[in-house]
């Protein structure tokens, strides 16, 4: 691949353009908002100049509702040898493109499983897709050259290709991406009119659950409107579980001992199901989740403190597998939680204490 056209210079499009440009591909940038490709070009994502002829690959990074018309327009003007999109929904846009008379032989629907709460070119990074799954949904009529170009795109972005059926993909992302967004927003919405005293008690748990609720509502409306059926199916199952859990909790208020026992059993069953499901989420490098031990370190909010902790851990020969920070309410301090292999926890604890850190294991 020597040349590419990126249509849509938001977070995903600009990140792909940055990755391609960094690896020697000449990238041409287009967007209906002229300010966005100008910004992306200033970041080093490519050029605003139109290509002199067909490029090797056109990457369409527009909202799902606009994918098929945008792809059709590019195909009719002969913009590229091959066309891919990076939208989060695959079945509907492909059927719409076929209904409009588009060429499915030169088009491959793809979806990089990466993103941020922030949007726009200024949020883009060349390493956004590194190590992340990138779904490809080829059809029997797809030209082999286009598939190879798409695989090269994935490789240049240092992502991991995953081949799926388009409709299976849409059901999968409804479960692992679209429904979690709605559930996060539903929980966060409880905080909108909550008493200030309650909000001040927010800890890491509520921050974890509501993190993605900070995403752009307009962007998510476009995504959900393109995949409403599968999302509604999953949300209906969640609603059924919620109803059952509410009944179990109400039973715990009963004066009847048998009802309280049944209620406790119902709540415990739901918690156990949740734990079993969480254990299936892939861990580091896509492997089964490891049982790490957590070492907590009290830290002040000063420049260089995190670097010192990591340096001290490195000198002790301990690899930090994961890290999270729990911020203290109203104080310039917090608790850094370092996840390490169980056999390394004692070594790390001793080394950090020797270097003057306050450690909680």
TrEMBL record:
The keyword NAD applies. NCBIfam families: PRK06545.2-1 (NF005109), PRK06545.2-3 (NF005111), PRK06545.2-4 (NF005112). Residues 1-289 form the Prephenate/arogenate dehydrogenase domain. Residues 30-51 are annotated as: Disordered. Coiled coil: none annotated. Residues 294-361 form the ACT domain. GO terms for molecular function: NAD+ binding; prephenate dehydrogenase (NAD+) activity; prephenate dehydrogenase (NADP+) activity. The keyword Coiled coil does not apply. It catalyses: prephenate + NAD(+) = 3-(4-hydroxyphenyl)pyruvate + CO2 + NADH. Keywords: Amino-acid biosynthesis, Aromatic amino acid biosynthesis, NAD, Oxidoreductase, Tyrosine biosynthesis. InterPro entries: 6-PGluconate_DH-like_C_sf, ACT-like_dom_sf, ACT_dom, NAD(P)-bd_dom_sf, PDH_C, PDH_N, Preph/Arog_dehydrog, Prephen_DH. This is Prephenate dehydrogenase. It comes from the Bacteria. Pathway: Amino-acid biosynthesis; L-tyrosine biosynthesis; (4-hydroxyphenyl)pyruvate from prephenate (NAD(+) route): step 1/1. Pfam families: PDH_C, PDH_N. Its EC number is 1.3.1.12. One of its GO terms (biological process) is tyrosine biosynthetic process. Belongs to the prephenate/arogenate dehydrogenase family.
